[in-house]
From TrEMBL:
InterPro entries: NUDIX_hydrolase-like_dom_sf (IPR015797), NUDIX_hydrolase_dom (IPR000086), WH-like_DNA-bd_sf (IPR036388), WH_DNA-bd_sf (IPR036390), WHD_NrtR (IPR054105). It holds the Pfam family NUDIX. The lineage of its organism: Bacteria, Pseudomonadati, Bacteroidota, Bacteroidia, Bacteroidales. This is ADP-ribose pyrophosphatase YjhB (NUDIX family). It comes from Dysgonomonas hofstadii. Gene3D superfamilies: Nucleoside Triphosphate Pyrophosphohydrolase (3.90.79.10), Winged helix-like DNA-binding domain superfamily/Winged helix DNA-binding domain (1.10.10.10). It comes from the Bacteria.
């Protein structure tokens, strides 16, 4: 498919462009200013924030659709993306919200009828480098990053999608290169620990965490420090890229799930 169309074109011509009754939604995680954040967007005519998502073109696989949407939204060609669940409760579609959007965008009722149907959504999560993302914001929408514990009012079941994604990551935490995908090439151990604490929703012992991270053999200490204040110069570390890429390729468990 081509790049994202305007919301009017998408909703007005959707029945001809997209597979009926199937959508994709993604929780996009990034790390910035000491916090794990998720990217959300909303129509200016709506009060509800949504996960980045959309519909699957008739010439696309679901993964291809999600990658297209993420590239359009973040400017990133290659992202860490995993499909983790599908969501299909009969009450998940907010028909009142859909009617308002169609009305505000002046989509003809007969052309927007498909948008009022029930949709099953494939849920994805993506880990991206916050500093590399070039988030696109169009005149008809608002887009912002939110901390996971400070989310705004969300559309339909998008809070459930976020919660399920976080629970999935917790269960599979030993297989997922979380820090490798979220942090810059050089990072501090407190930054890495902060990410795991945000996902696990609890504090981790500083010494035990550092010992565990260094013991797995995927992180190497650098002979460098970062100037963080008058009396603070935390040591810097880097990830061993080849090892992470090999682990991802063969589905190798990087470390135990126990913290």
């Amino acid at each position: 498919m081509e790049n994202e169309k305007s919301p009017f074109d998408t909703l007005d011509q959707g029945r001809e462009i997209f597979i009926p009754n199937v959508s994709v939604d993604c929780i996009v995680l990034g790390y910035h200013d000491g916090s794990l954040k998720t990217l959300l967007c909303k129509f200016k005519v709506s009060e509800s924030w949504m996960l980045p998502g959309g519909f699957v073109g008739k010439d696309e696989d679901p993964d291809e659709a999600m990658l297209r949407i993420l590239k359009d939204r973040t400017g990133l060609d290659r992202v860490y993306l995993k499909q983790f669940c599908f969501f299909g409760k009969k009450t998940r579609t907010n028909l009142g919200e859909h009617e308002k959007i169609l009305r505000e965008l002046k989509v003809r009722p007969e052309n927007g009828k498909w948008y009022m149907d029930r949709f099953i959504s494939l849920g994805y999560y993506s880990l991206i480098r916050y500093d590399k993302a070039r988030v696109t914001v169009r005149e008809y929408e608002d887009v912002d990053w939110f901390c996971l514990d400070e989310l705004p009012p969300l559309y339909g079941d998008h809070k459930e999608i976020i919660d399920t994604a976080v629970q999935t990551i917790r269960k599979q935490i030993g297989f997922i290169p979380i820090g490798y995908e979220l942090l810059p090439e050089k990072f501090t151990m407190p930054e890495l620990r902060n990410i795991y604490e945000s996902l696990l929703n609890r504090e981790l012992d500083r010494r035990n965490f550092q010992r565990k991270m260094l013991s797995i053999g995927y992180i190497t200490p650098l002979n460098e420090t970062r100037r963080a204040g008058a009396h603070k110069s935390p040591n810097l570390y880097s990830f061993i890229k080849d090892k992470y890429e090999e682990a991802e390729k063969y589905g190798v468990q990087i470390m135990s799930n126990n913290f």
